């Protein structure tokens, strides 16, 4: 049928503005999926897209004069396509291991993807699975017909990415590009602590395209070394590691040059976050953009010389190609991590869009780049680097445009740096939990220095080191000494004048920082934009987060998800008590990662900290929290668990805001071990009560009931010993008569807590049970004239990716 009317010759592909709206619709649809509580059904999405496309075709065919309706339907089709694409990736393309594999030991042949990093008990590597098979126990025949047939499930692991925790010493030093055979690998789902203010480990690993975590004590067998750029990068990294002294300056050089952050200490990372400079040591948009800029300047110089000689007519293709070549070389040196890949892809789209034969505005190029990134990496929007690097690359490339006549270059640079610092503040607060007052000034001063005085010499030294090491070692050593001196000065300055505030957002939704960023863009926009005087209100939820207040006689209990361990926050109207301080695994302490963010995000400071007994899963964070809250009153079940002034747990009662607290402990003669020495806490409000039993076993529980004449009724029970089979006896449940119980157990812990027999005892009495390892941090509110309100954080916060790990 021939189209007639005023719109008969309209083609949307030639309408740059229309394609921009469609790209924006696709990005919005793809990103919007992550705001949903669960993935939508593919069947419904396909049906929705089919109907939308049909209506679009009909409107174009029969309603030629209704061009606006046609455009709206096109954009809606793009939104539907983006939603379908993201949902299709996670439901069909991404490899989720079959839950039955979590019960098996596997032999994995893997390729190491990046430089190894140190961990608490060894080292961890990013790897890609080549072949997976079931491990065969020693002495078992090769043909074991009793083993389950999981060949299809094992083959599905091929090409999936994993985070592997390995022993410190393997049969050979591990390096990127190597192929290894690892035996007896125990794989686990991607699962982290779900607690207000805590780092979202699951979002981070899914953003990096991982499928599972694996651990093994096997020393493995090296099968081969890839003879490519990975091998060259390994050799280069080890060469520079041996060449430079073990100082903070050397660690910064290696991080800037090749994304080797193994030398950065915890103190270095803390200072980077306090100063707002952490983005400088993560090779992403800023660094790739700088490399492109340096390559472009080099190409421009060569192009001008060739033009003078009459050998070149147009130098701009050479400028762009040289810039891309230098950026690609730098990305190769840094290991081609996902942030570097995305930044380089955005550069390519930006350059192609800026070609003279294809005139496309900067905003359209940015939208096209984001569309391409999501098409290639649908999980990219889950990572903060997706947004941070996109804005950094866009800002740097904007600086390549001709300087506006009404502004000098330094004025533009100053304006861009201040605007960028202001715009990124909500994302920095959300991802690094810190508000740095010095960040805008330091970025204004240090980013130009790094861009002009540090990165270019480092790249030149990197090239020179391929020819000669003697003078390169001297120059790099001198540069390391200068950086170390400046780093120590900066550290001393922040030790003397802490120009930052810890700023954990707590329960504030991730939508809050996004809204604040949009408001900031609106605020910095043209003067003609409406409502500019009111957009600052979008910052209020971040600056002044609201917390639900308690009345007299009311209490709130939060059993934090700290893994296999206990940390319970009890709050009344004006007071806070912390029961146990969470676990520690070697040097890895959970308290700064879960307990501190929750307390600061909720605006709480504990008046009293009670450590039930001297087990690392209960007292692991005591030293850290004592330094953080020195004014708190400490009570301990065993005095040897702390080396500062603390009270021994004795039978004692006190009141806070109409809530009665009573601490109890068995007599010394009845304490057979550390567990039976646990300090027990009973909380009695106006309407409900709670009982926290520490790690008492059934025998100790019986002795406790005798001491209290069976007067331990509790509406809520924090079950003893994480739900162990030896705790929570029948008689204890009959005496306390709880309506709900909480198990403070780690997700799929190797102890098997809570034990199936223990669960059966609770279920036979119709007692509702919650598990911090499965439900996340569990919040219990005791309110006037209302039943106990109990909810797990994974349910209330409802993040999409929290539903993917099997319960």
Automatic annotation (TrEMBL):
The keyword Acyltransferase does not apply. It is a multi-pass membrane protein. Gene3D superfamilies: Ribonuclease Z/Hydroxyacylglutathione hydrolase-like. GO terms for cellular component: plasma membrane. It is found in: Cell membrane. The chain crosses the membrane at residues 20-36, 42-63, 70-90, 277-298, 318-336, 342-358, 363-380, 415-438, 444-469, 500-524. InterPro entries: ComA-like_MBL, ComEC_N, Competence_ComEC/Rec2, Competence_DNA_uptake, DUF4131, Metallo-B-lactamas, RibonucZ/Hydroxyglut_hydro. This is DNA internalization-related competence protein ComEC/Rec2.
């Amino acid at each position: 049928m021939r189209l007639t009317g005023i719109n008969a010759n309209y083609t949307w592909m030639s309408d740059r503005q229309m394609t921009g709206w469609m790209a924006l619709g696709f990005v919005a649809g793809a990103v919007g999926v992550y705001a949903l509580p669960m993935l939508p059904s593919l069947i419904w999405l396909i049906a929705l897209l089919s109907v939308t496309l049909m209506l679009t075709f009909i409107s174009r065919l029969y309603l030629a004069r209704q061009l606006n309706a046609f455009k709206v339907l096109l954009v809606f089709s793009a939104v539907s396509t983006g939603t379908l694409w993201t949902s299709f990736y996670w439901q069909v393309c991404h490899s989720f291991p079959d839950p039955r594999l979590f019960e098996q030991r596997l032999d994995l042949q893997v390729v190491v993807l990046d430089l190894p990093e140190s961990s608490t008990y060894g080292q961890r590597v990013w790897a890609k699975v080549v072949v997976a098979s079931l491990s065969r126990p020693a002495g078992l025949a090769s043909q074991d017909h009793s083993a389950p047939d999981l060949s299809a499930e094992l083959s599905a692991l091929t090409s999936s990415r994993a985070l592997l925790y390995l022993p410190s010493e393997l049969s050979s030093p591990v390096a990127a590009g190597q192929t290894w055979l690892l035996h007896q690998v125990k794989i686990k789902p991607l699962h982290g602590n779900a607690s207000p203010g805590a780092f979202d480990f699951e979002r981070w690993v899914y953003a990096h395209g991982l499928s599972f975590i694996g651990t093994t004590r096997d020393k493995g067998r090296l099968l081969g070394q890839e003879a490519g750029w990975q091998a060259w990068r390994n050799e280069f990294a080890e060469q520079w590691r041996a060449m430079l002294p073990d100082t903070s300056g050397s660690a910064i050089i290696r991080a800037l040059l090749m994304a080797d952050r193994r030398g950065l200490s915890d103190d270095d990372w803390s200072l980077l976050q306090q100063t707002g400079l952490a983005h400088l040591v993560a090779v992403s948009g800023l660094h790739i953009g700088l490399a492109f800029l340096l390559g472009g300047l080099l190409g421009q110089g060569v192009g001008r010389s060739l033009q003078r000689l009459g050998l070149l007519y147009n130098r701009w293709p050479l400028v762009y190609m040289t810039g891309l070549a230098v950026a690609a070389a730098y990305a190769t040196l840094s290991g081609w991590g996902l942030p570097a890949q995305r930044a380089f892809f955005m550069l390519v789209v930006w350059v192609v869009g800026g070609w003279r034969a294809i005139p496309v505005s900067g905003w359209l190029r940015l939208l096209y780049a984001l569309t391409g990134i999501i098409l290639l990496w649908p999980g990219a929007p889950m990572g903060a680097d997706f947004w941070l690097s996109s804005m950094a690359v866009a800002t740097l490339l904007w600086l390549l445009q001709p300087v506006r006549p009404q502004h000098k270059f330094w004025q533009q640079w100053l304006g861009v740096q201040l605007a960028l610092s202001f715009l990124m503040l909500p994302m920095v607060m959300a991802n690094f939990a810190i508000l740095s007052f010095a960040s805008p000034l330091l970025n204004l001063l240090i980013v130009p220095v790094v861009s002009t005085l540090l990165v270019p010499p480092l790249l030149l030294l990197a090239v020179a080191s391929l020819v000669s090491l003697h003078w390169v070692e001297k120059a790099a050593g001198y540069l390391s000494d200068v950086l170390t001196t400046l780093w120590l000065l900066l550290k001393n300055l922040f030790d003397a004048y802490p120009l930052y505030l810890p700023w954990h957002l707590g329960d504030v939704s991730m939508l809050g920082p996004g809204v604040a960023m949009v408001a900031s863009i609106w605020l910095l926009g043209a003067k003609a934009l409406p409502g500019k005087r009111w957009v600052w209100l979008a910052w209020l939820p971040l600056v002044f987060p609201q917390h639900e207040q308690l009345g007299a006689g009311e209490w709130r209990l939060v059993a934090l998800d700290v893994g296999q361990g206990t940390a319970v926050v009890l709050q009344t109207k004006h007071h806070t008590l912390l029961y146990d301080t969470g676990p520690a695994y070697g040097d890895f302490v959970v308290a700064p990662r879960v307990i501190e963010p929750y307390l600061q995000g909720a605006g709480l400071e504990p008046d009293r900290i009670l450590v039930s007994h001297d087990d690392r899963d209960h007292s692991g964070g005591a030293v850290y929290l004592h330094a953080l809250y020195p004014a708190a009153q400490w009570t301990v079940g065993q005095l040897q668990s702390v080396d500062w002034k603390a009270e021994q747990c004795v039978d004692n009662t006190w009141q806070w805001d109409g809530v009665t607290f009573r601490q109890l402990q068995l007599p010394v003669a009845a304490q057979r071990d550390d567990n039976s020495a646990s300090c027990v806490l009973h909380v009695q409000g106006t309407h409900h009560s709670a009982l926290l039993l520490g790690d008492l076993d059934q025998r100790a529980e019986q002795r406790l009931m005798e001491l209290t004449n069976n007067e331990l009724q509790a509406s809520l029970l924090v079950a003893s010993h994480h739900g162990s089979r030896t705790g929570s006896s029948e008689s204890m449940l009959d005496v306390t008569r709880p309506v709900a119980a909480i198990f403070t157990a780690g997700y799929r812990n190797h102890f098997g807590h809570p034990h199936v027999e223990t669960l059966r005892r609770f279920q036979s009495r119709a007692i509702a049970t919650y598990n911090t390892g499965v439900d996340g941090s569990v919040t219990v509110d005791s309110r006037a004239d209302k039943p106990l309100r109990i909810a797990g954080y994974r349910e209330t916060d409802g993040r999409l990716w929290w539903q993917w790990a099997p319960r």
